[in-house]
Each structure stands twice: as structure tokens, then as C-alpha cells.
Specification:
Jelly Rolls, 6-stranded antiparallel beta sheet, 1 helix, 12 strands, disulfide bond, transmembrane helix
Length: 146
């Protein structure tokens, strides 16, 4: 008998085409996008849904587009990136809250338990625009333990 261990993993790119009317960042993944992939979790309207209970390593990096030295002073007072479980709503919780301070990029990672059906939402303070460059803005999870 052969046992195949299934690894749930996703590395996503930003899916953004115009002005932001919603604080949520929408993600996309798949082989047609080059370095982006999705094995196990699924995308539901640009948000990542977990399909297996376990402990996951979550990572994110967001770089603001057209971030100049002038913009850095504005950003430092109000720009925030948050990652949380937004569904099911019965246990919505915040997982990461990152402030840009005086820079144009934030990045973080952490281990966190997630349950089947949890949907991860990422929010960026409006009206700031994230860079669409896949080397500057990305989001992903990796299952590490049940």
C-alpha cells in the first residue's frame, strides 16, 4: 500500500485592475501565472479558503505602488495591512496587523491553526494601492501539521 501525503499550499499574486473601492485585496493563483500556484486550498472571490484543518505557516508581503519619500510620511501615520479569518463569521479573528510606519513595504509570517472552511481576508487601508509586481506583493499559506 502506498501512502501519499497531501500538502496544502498556496502562493498567490495580487489580482487588481483598477481603483480600489474595497479595503480587501483580491488574490489569484495558478500555473498560467508563473510562480503562483494553489494545491489544496481554493480561491473564493479572490479570498483564500482552507480545505483542511491544521497548523499553517502564513506569509505575506505588500509593497505600495508609487511610494515616494513624500508618500512615506503620509503612509507612516495611517497605512495598515491586516490578515484575518473573515469566514465563517461565527469566529472572525485577526491573525496579523502590520503598520507601514515610514516604509513602503511590510512583510510577516506566522504559524496559526486554521479549520476547514476558514476564509482568509487581507485588507489594506484605502485608498492606498498595492504594487502588482509579483516580487513585491504576494500572499501564501503552507500546511505544516494536523
Amino acid at each position: 500500500m502506498i501512502f501519499v501525503k497531501r500538502w496544502d499550499i498556496a502562493e498567490l499574486q495580487l489580482n487588481h485592475t483598477g481603483p480600489r473601492q474595497d479595503p480587501r485585496l483580491y488574490w489569484q493563483g495558478g500555473p498560467a501565472l508563473g510562480r503562483s500556484f494553489l494545491y489544496g486550498p481554493q480561491l473564493d472571490n479572490g479570498q483564500l479558503r482552507v480545505r483542511r484543518d491544521g497548523i499553517y505557516k502564513l506569509h505575506i508581503q505588500v509593497t505600495l505602488s508609487n511610494c515616494s519619500s513624500f508618500m512615506k510620511s503620509i503612509v507612516s501615520h495611517r497605512a495598515t495591512l491586516t490578515v484575518g479569518i473573515c469566514s465563517p463569521s461565527s469566529h472572525s479573528i485577526s491573525l496579523l496587523r502590520l503598520n507601514f510606519h515610514s516604509g513602503c513595504t511590510v512583510a510577516s509570517q506566522r504559524l496559526t491553526p486554521l479549520a476547514h472552511g476558514d476564509t482568509l481576508c487581507t485588507n489594506l487601508t484605502l485608498p492606498l494601492l498595492p504594487s502588482q509586481n509579483a516580487d513585491e506583493t504576494f500572499f501564501g499559506i503552507q500546511w505544516v501539521h494536523s
